[in-house]
Amino acid sequence: MSAGALAAGWTDSSSIGYPVLFGGVLLGSVVPVVPTGAVVGAGAAFAVTAHELDVVLVVLVATLGAWAGDLVTFAICRFGGPAAVRWVARGQHADRIEEVREQFHRHGWQIVVVGRLLPAGRIPVLLAAGALAYPWRRLLPASLLAAFLWAVAYAALGVVSGGIFDSPLIAVLLATVLVLVVGAVLNVVGSHRRRTPDPEPEPDPSACGPA
Question: Where is this region: Disordered (predicted)?
Answer without folding.
Answer: 192-211
